[in-house]
Structures are given as C-alpha cells and as structure tokens.
Amino acid sequence: MAVGLEEPLLEIDEIQGNSLAGFNKDHQIFLFYKIVDPSLAKRWLRYWTPYVSTAREVLQFNRLYQMMWARRGEEPPGMMATWLNIAFSYEGLKLLTDDLVVFEDSEFKLGMKKRSGILGDPTGPAQEMHEGHAKNWLFGGERNPVDLVLIAAGDDRSRLIEWTDRIQASALQLPGAGPGTGGGIRLVFEQEGQVRPDLKGHEHFGFKDGISQPGIRGRVSEMPEEYLTARLIDPSDPHAALYAKPGQPLIWPGQFVLGYPQQKRDDSLRPKPPNVHMTGWVRNGSYLVIRRLRQDVAAFWEFVRREAQTSGIKPERLAALMVGRWPSGAPILRTPEKDDKLLAENDLVNNHFMYVENSSMVKLLPELAEDQFPQASGDPQAVLCPFSAHIRKTNPRDETSDSGSLSDSLVRRILRRGIPFGKSLPVDFETGITGGDPQEGNRGLMFVAYMTSIEMQFEFITQNWMNSKKEPKEGGHDPIVGQNYRNGRKREFDLMGREMVLDKEWVIPTGGEYFFQPSISVLRDVLAR
Ligand code: N7H
Asked: Which residue ranges does the record assign to the Dyp-type peroxidase C-terminal domain (predicted)?
C-alpha cells in the first residue's frame, strides 16, 4: 500500500521497550532515586545499561507470547521475561550532562511539582494539609525530589523483587562507593504495582483499562509491510489507510518518540517532519509522565449508590455513564442499556465507535471474524453517553471542540502504560456495595504515559479537557480524574439532564514527576559516560 511504504523505519534497538512495545507485565516495581554523586551514579548506570530492555526485545517477546497463546488457547507455561527501563527528570539530566540545549519542552524542565497548580492539584498555603498538595507527595514533591526512575517489570513477583534488590545493592558494591556516598544514588521512594489478581486488566474502581491505545505508524524491519502495529483491515477498505483495526486510528510515531514524523492536525495521511530540536541526541527518546494517583474506591461507590437512589438509575449504569464504558470495558455507545462481556472481550469491536458519526462495518482481513454486534449510533447531543464521561473527555474522537476537529484529537493522544497498586477492594457492581476494609491498604493507579510534548498532550488533556466544565463540550468536569481548584474543589457533572455535585475527591495525586526516557546509545554514551 502506497501510504504504508512511506512509513518510517523505527530504530527499535535504540528505543527503550516500555514506550512503543509496552511491558505488559503483571508485576512492576518503580524505583525513584536522587543522584548524590554524579560520577558514581554514572558508573552504576554504565553497569545497568546493557540490561535496559529495547523495544525490539519487548516487541518480539510479546509477539511470540501472543502467537503461542492464540494457537494453544491458553497462556504458554513458563514463558517469562524481566524488563528494565530508565528515565530522568530534568534536574537529574543536569547532573549527568551539560548538553541540555536540546530540550525545548519547558514543562519538562519545570517538572511536575511546579506544574501542579496547572494540573488542578491543591496548591498554596490554604491547601497545605490536603493529601494532594506537593508538600505531602511521597516522591517528586517539595521534600523528596527525584532525579531518575527505574521501571522493572516481570511475570513472577519473587524474581522481580530479587532483581530489584540486586539493582539496589549493586550501587553500594561499586569501587569507590562508601556509606557516605550511598553508591552515588539514594532511593527516595519505591512503589510496587500489580495487575489485579481478582480482576485482571481492571483498575481499582472495577473498570477494564488499557483498551484504547493509538495505532502507531512505522515499520520495524526493512520489509515494507512489517509494521509496529498490526494492520487488521482489508486493504480494499478505505479505512485501512487510517486505522490499524476498527476504532484504532493510525498516528505518526513522532507523537510518541522524538525524531520521527509527527501527526498533522488537518491531514492524517501526510505527516509533519520533526523539527530540529527533535533530531539531536533526544532522538529515539520520549517524555514520560508518572503520577501516583490514590483511589478512594469506597468513596466513589458510596457516591454512586447515593445518586442511584435519588436518580433511579442503577448503580452499575450510573458508574458506567461516568466512565463511558461498562465495568467489562464494553463502550456505552455500542451497548447503551446493559453490559455485554462478549462484546468487551472482542478487541475488533470494543473500541469501534465515534461520538458524532454512526459506526459501520469495516472489512477485515479474510481470516478474521466479522463484527456481529449492533453498531454504535452517533451521539452528538450526548443522549447516550455524557459529554463529560471520562473517555469522552480524554479522547473526544470525532467531536469538534474549541480545540479543533477529529485530527486535532489525534495530536493529543498519549501512550498509556499504567498499572494498579495496592490491594483490591471487591465491588458488587449491581448494588455498588464494596467489601473488605476500605481503610486497609492504599490503592490506586501508577499513571504512566509516553508522549513527545507534555504541554500539548498530557497537560492539555488535563487542563483543557478533564478539569474544564466546558471543553471539549459543555457538560461538567471529568467525574473520575477531573480536579477543580475553585469552589472548594467541588466538581460538577451533567448526567442525563441532572447536574450532580461531586463533593468528594476519589482520585488524589500523591506523587509524580516528568521524565525523559533516552535512547539506549544516549544512555550509554552520554549519560553513563
Ligand atoms: Fe483514564 N477509570 O477507571 O475510569 N481511563 N483513568 N486517564 N484514560 C480509561 O478506554 C481511569 C487518567 C485516559 O481513547 C478507561 O482504554 C482511572 C489520566 C485516556 O477512548 C478507564 C484513572 C489520564 C483514555 C479509565 C485514570 C487518563 C482513558 C477506559 C486514575 C490523562 C482512553 C479504558 C486513577 C491525563 C480514552 C480504555 C479513549 C481510558 C479510568 C487516569 C486518560 C476505565 C481510574 C490521569 C486518554
């Protein structure tokens, strides 16, 4: 296909694995460090650089795993891997190199703590007691800045812990390291994340996550049609030029990794060349946003139960309207009245809908089963799915807004790689009653996202859409993650013609930072040298 031939060859031996390929592991450990002695820290980095997983390694493992899974119909036993990626805050980079003119992203340079107010977090002296105030963060806050993060991921928890223990101990074993230097680095915070054992792939409120991801354009070998993202639409269907599979638009890789062609607002087929700032040593690197979001699961479902009683809408449906998907992941627009687990499991169907246009049959490759489920009707007046439902806020798809049209929503997309942390609290979706002890454990989401402009992507979604009552379409704040720094932090949400006041916050930022995840050669030849 002519368009495909023009897609760039991605340097997957240079790009770290969690961005383009995604670790996709049940267990992850995040180690946040402060650099106390740059030359010792460099030695330590030099030692670990060969262990940093590349996009090629992760991609090949994931493909083999999926291939075996598909043929056997069950998880291939004993097939395991342990992955590692490393990223740096701007302050961390400053300690390791002088060559920093290459960074044009001023938000990255400022760091998350200084942008906390822009993100809607509680700031200023009057809010100092609020858990979400940067003074109280567990890392990245005023008292606990971080210079680098290691993300380790694996299938087996005990092996992963063994591996991260080795990483930590290794710093002290370096020649020249002593008790005073801490081996060049000091651990600021450690967070373990894990896929929920009771509800795999679901976040703590109970909803399936990680369904909607951009289809990244680009090839991974010299072969003209070996794409990073599998193309599942028959080339005779015009959708094939724009979508990898139904509901997964193709986006130029320069939105996620620096140095590649970028998405244009007005033309999805022809990209914009990368600018000069993106081609220096930042090439093959990505900005990485990590935000530890504590979730108050009991408070969320208590609100849902209370509103269900007064509105007559059943708890499960009410919560689904706040998210835009049912707990199984089935989108409201494909099944407005009730959850449909079969639809949710079918990844050729579960993301195939728009907000304005009706969805229609797409011709798939001959070996794939056709979409048998009722198609989605467009919902331009938000009769079926509220304008402010979380997924409609964060990705308005074909809805026009003050910020632009369909292709504008494509330039805002991010690559989400988050994982839950903490012990689950079981929820009965029918009644909205939560079990367990809500006080026990501290649970939430390690929000992890890759992009090439923090301002235009993560901050734009947060500030202009999730935290706004009016954009992309008037209908209140995002009821899941939106924050309102005014009005006593109360949020408002229009649900089927009723204005709801959300007087409690159930997603609270408890730490975070903006990082840059460099290419393998920059890690080896610049930062570790
Ligand atoms: Fe969100 N949730 O449980 O409601 N998210 N999110 N998110 N989120 C999504 O479609 C959730 C957060 C996005 O393309 C789903 O893959 C929770 C932040 C985007 O249609 C669910 C938290 C930001 C999408 C959740 C949280 C985003 C998305 C449906 C915090 C950005 C894709 C699964 C604790 C700044 C939308 C899916 C699309 C989907 C939930 C955080 C963004 C269930 C609990 C901070 C872009």
From this structure: 280-468
